[in-house]
Amino acid sequence: MKKLLLFMLIPIGLAGGLGAGYALKPHAEQEDAAGKAGDPWDADVDEEDNPSAGKDADLKAVEPASYAEPLQGDPEPVDYVKLDRQFVVPLIRDSKVSAMVVISMAIEAEPGSADLVFLHEPKLRDVFLQVLFTHAQSGGFEGAFTNEKALADLRFALNVAAQSVIGKMARKVLLTSVVKQDV
Q1: β-strands 79-82, 87-93: how paired?
Q2: Which of 20, 21, 150, 174 has the greatest number of beta carbons closer than 10 A?
């Protein structure tokens, strides 16, 4: 059983790593900021002009349309700090593990605070696991667990947990990959 679980987690980890790498590419960050104009997480973020507004006309011609013009109201610059290891959450049913949820995360943080995030990573992982286990025990990963409200509730709880460890340096906790595997 343990070997079977190990062989199942390897492809999940690979897929999660590839997904996180794709999600954390620089152009994905700009798309993410553009697509979440009404995001409640951005309520306390001061907005300023996009620093890429002075690009050459030649560069604008070869870039996708979504990058050609500066976005109105872009938030100030941030660091995206990817947590190195995934989080594995067992789902228990009838005193047995019925499924595993594997989650990759990153933290949107104040510029220059990546070292602080890595310094506090053990404590961050601990509080994140507490939130994830509570979410699992309350049925948060059952049914349509990827619907907007369920994920917003989970992100909110993770954000509160991150800010309890590193304060306002943590702006958002980003779920870069969520995979559920029945066992």
Answers
A1: unpaired
A2: 174
Numbers of helices and strands, H then E, in the chain? 7, 4
Q: Which of the pair, 122 or 71, is modelled with greater confidence?
A: 122
Q: How far is CA 17 from the centre of its chain?
A: 13
CA distance 169 to 100: 31
Indicate the residue type of 176: T
The helix, strand and coil proportions of the chain, stated in percent and rounded to the nearest 5, come to: 50, 20, 25
| pLDDT value of position 18 | 63
Cα separations (Å) of 178 from 36, 116, 149, 158, 164? 19, 25, 15, 14, 23
Sequence-distant (≥ 6) Cβ neighbours of residue 144 within 8 angstroms: 150
Q: Which helix (H) or strand (E) holds 68?
A: helix 65-68
Which of 42 and 86 is assigned the larger pLDDT?
86
